[in-house]
């Protein structure tokens, strides 16, 4: 009797054990889906080509940031602008010093106890002009020196800004998903006929395939 009950217990436990193994194998065979980390194309491109590096290069040496951005055609334009303003700055300083020296020489030569040492060093042009005219010209060229220095600094700063903008645009998305086209026809919004610019965004094909799956 005991042996019969033992055999009956073994037979009743066998199906449940087999079912448990089957369910465990079924769980293990389920594919595990791992999500790939989403990467930002703009951030990765910015790290590879940082605008800060372009700004530093252009601030140290004009045109270096443009070379870093591979905009070689801008380098001659930058040096032409800086060269012209630099030449004007130097020429204004030279003329200002001449007028300053001429005014000082004329002033000392016309005092009650004149000092004509510097007067004989003057050009004939400065001997014919009145001291008031020389002083006015001196003050005017002093302003020209300030203006030319300001323009030189502005062009240097524009060189840095241009390098930073180009570095940012290098990581800008200009993929085929973006399109800009000119369209002629009737505008319902303006209720008139004319030409309009249409900017369209197309869905990425990879995202369509994933959605279908």
* Low-confidence runs of at least 5 consecutive residues: 6-11, 13-19, 203-213
**What is the strand tally?**
2
Oligomer: single chain
Strand ordering within the main sheet: 1-2
Separate helix tally: 8
Question: Concise description?
Answer:
The chain has 213 residues and is mainly α. Helices cover 65% and strands 9% of the residues.
Write the layout of secondary structure elements.
Blueprint: H1 2-28, H2 41-48, H3 51-60, H4 64-68, H5 74-109, H6 124-128, H7 131-170, E1 178-187, E2 192-201, H8 205-212
Antiparallel strand pairs: 1-2
Helix pairs in contact: 3-7, 5-7
Notes on the protein architecture:
- Helix 3 (51-60) runs antiparallel to helix 7 (131-170) and helix 5 (74-109) runs antiparallel to helix 7 (131-170).
- A two-stranded antiparallel sheet has the order 1-2.
- The protein has helices spanning 2-28, 41-48, 51-60, 64-68, 74-109, 124-128, 131-170, 205-212; strands at residues 178-187, 192-201.
- It folds into 2 domains: 42-172, no CATH class; 173-213, no CATH class.
- It is elongated, with a radius of gyration of 41 Å.
- The model is unreliable at 6-11, 13-19 and 203-213 (pLDDT under 50).
- It contains 8 helices and 2 strands.
- The chain is mainly α.
């Amino acid at each position: 009797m005991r042996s019969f009950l033992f055999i009956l217990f073994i037979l009743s436990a066998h199906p449940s054990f087999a079912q448990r193994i089957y369910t465990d194998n079924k769980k293990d065979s389920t594919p595990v889906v791992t999500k790939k980390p989403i990467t930002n194309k703009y951030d990765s491109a910015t790290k590879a080509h940082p605008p800060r590096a372009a700004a530093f290069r252009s601030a140290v040496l004009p045109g270096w940031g443009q070379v870093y951005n591979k905009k070689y055609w801008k380098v001659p334009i930058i040096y032409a602008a800086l060269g012209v303003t630099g030449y004007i700055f130097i020429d204004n300083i030279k003329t200002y010093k001449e007028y300053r020296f001429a005014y000082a020489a004329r002033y000392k030569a016309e005092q009650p106890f004149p000092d004509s040492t510097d007067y004989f060093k003057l050009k004939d042009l400065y001997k014919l002009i009145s001291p008031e005219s020389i002083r006015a010209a001196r003050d005017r060229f002093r302003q020209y020196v300030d203006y030319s220095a300001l323009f030189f600094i502005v062009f240097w700063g524009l060189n840095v800004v241009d390098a930073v903008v180009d570095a940012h645009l290098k990581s800008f998305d200009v993929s085929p998903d973006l399109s800009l086209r000119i369209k002629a026809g009737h505008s319902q919004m303006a209720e008139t006929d004319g030409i309009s610019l249409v900017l369209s965004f197309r869905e990425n094909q990879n995202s369509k395939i994933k959605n279908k799956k």
